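Exercise 7 asks you to align residues with tokens for two separate proteins.
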Amino acid sequence: MNQQPPPADAKNEEVTARTLREQYESGATVAELVATSGLSYGTVLNRLREAGTVMRTSWQTRRMRDGQARRKLAAHLRRLYEQHGATLTELAAAGSVSRRAARRLLIEAGGTPRTTQQTLRIRSATDAIARKKLAVSLRARYEAGASVPKLATECSYSVATVYRLLHEANTHMRPRHHHGPARTRGKRS
């Protein structure tokens, strides 16, 4: 009688899936993984998917393997990371690679990965500069005669946000006007 093979250990499958993912993200093709692992093509694909691997197209693999193109991509990602404060997720999207591959390329280009807190500080500093520029721009337009509701509509912000930005820019505010029909004084009967 034919005996069934023992059920595969789930932990062993997880390690295999993780190992396959690491090799794939390092630039190996699915066909190469099939040859080195002895698994079928479908099994390799299933294990890569189990591990959450972002699959590449053939042209992405060729680009990744080409030394000069890889160095150029790595340098581009480092520039984005260091000069523009991009995150690893944004680098992965820009390079059409996984986060792990983007991190590896960054390190290859001589970059040093930041902590989450460092990235947040860079982002908040950039946001503060942009907010200050917007506040100064709104102040100039307000002092030239534009109304707060008009500024809010043009900038797609709420009226309250425009007021807050104007106050941050130390804008001298005009007196508020009463909208609606004018009140008349008359005798009471």
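Second protein for Exercise 7:
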Amino acid sequence: MNEIDTDNQEVEEEILTEETQQFLSFIIEGEFFGLELLSVHEILKPVPITRIPNVEDYIMGVINLRGEIIPIIDLKKRFDISFTELQPSSRFVVVMKDDKRFGLLVDEVRQVVKITESNINYTTDDLALSYGKLIESVSRINDHLILNLGINQLVEFVQDN
């Protein structure tokens, strides 16, 4: 085995032993976003939404998912971009926070990506983006940056006393 092969083998072993996280990647307004895969419950094609008066403007309404009422959040509106118009590629990403489920309307779901810890940079509050406080980390995979959303920042449920 020559020196180059030995170096490549060491790099491959280093990559294999490095911690990885899995994210569901999706697109909103042409930007790549991610959610930690462990928080994703399922992905649905859009179904009829029942509107609810007097709620935050980014809450589109609720859906009935097998007998459970789930609020749907329009991420474009949550990011103060615009309202989302449903397209054939639009999806509801149903996520879990504590024991509660809620859905996120996204333009298009892409794929599950494995990202090594060294390619994840945790953000600070000084992001200039209007949705900066909702971004937990930024990941690099191939030629793309993925903005990873923090579930806790997206929605805050009222806790029962």
